[in-house]
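Why should sequence recovery work at all? Because a backbone constrains its sequence more than one might expect. Tight turns favour small or flexible residues, buried strands favour hydrophobic ones, and helices have their own preferences. The token representation captures these environments compactly. In the example below, the structure is given first.
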């Protein structure tokens, strides 16, 4: 799915709190506006709550050194974790962050463990909507690029280096939400986890200027 970086988004539901988690998806940034570019988040309207946000630190406001890094943020403790990996334009990356029962946080890019933090603070719940393409219910930080295969789990799926999946992700008993983003048309994004946490393009089921665009480009093998 292609987002324009101006107003495009996919709007999903309010998520239940998970203190153990894995957030993962494929990300391809196609334009640099020198601003924060948040590709998945559940921040609320005022950004005072955010169970999580994953974004590109355009302009290096939060992460000095390596430019345009992938970053994780949660409102609890104002925890900001820099990956050290640049989101190079027009390149697909598999991004995954996890926190296990012992409070160990891990940040993976392309299956490589980039950051480990022990005793990482647990996130707090947010009443913002899960949103792709911008910072949750907050009106800003739009993302210009492509997203695919979004999966949220309530367990640490990855704890060591792994090979990023190049086929469609599957749901397990620990899957909270799974968007394949391969519908190809229409206004709805189907949650394949079985939990019915479906999303819509833009803000509702009607065609809007805020709708992202279905595209065929994908880092994984498409179903026949």
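From this structural description, the recovered sequence reads:
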């Amino acid at each position: 799915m292609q987002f324009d970086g101006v107003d495009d988004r996919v709007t999903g539901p309010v998520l239940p709190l998970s203190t153990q988690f894995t957030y993962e998806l494929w990300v391809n940034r196609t334009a640099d506006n020198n601003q924060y570019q948040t590709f998945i988040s559940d921040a609320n309207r005022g950004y005072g709550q955010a169970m999580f946000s994953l974004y590109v630190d355009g302009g290096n406001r939060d992460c000095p050194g390596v430019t345009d890094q992938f970053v994780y943020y949660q409102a609890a403790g104002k925890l900001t974790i820099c990956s050290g990996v640049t989101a190079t334009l027009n390149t697909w990356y598999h991004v995954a962050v996890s926190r296990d029962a012992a409070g160990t946080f891990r940040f993976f890019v392309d299956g490589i463990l980039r950051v480990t933090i022990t005793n990482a603070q647990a996130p707090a719940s947010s009443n913002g909507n899960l949103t792709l393409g911008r910072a949750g219910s907050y009106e800003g930080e739009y993302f210009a690029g492509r997203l695919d295969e979004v999966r949220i789990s309530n367990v640490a799926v990855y704890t060591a280096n792994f090979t990023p999946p190049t086929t469609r992700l599957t749901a397990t008993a620990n899957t909270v939400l799974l968007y394949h983003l391969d519908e190809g048309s229409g206004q709805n994004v189907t949650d394949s986890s079985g939990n019915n946490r479906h999303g819509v393009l833009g803000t509702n089921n009607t065609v809007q200027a805020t709708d992202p665009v279905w595209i065929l480009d994908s880092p994984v093998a498409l179903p026949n």
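A few observations help interpret the result. Residues 57 and 113 are 19 Å apart (CA to CA).
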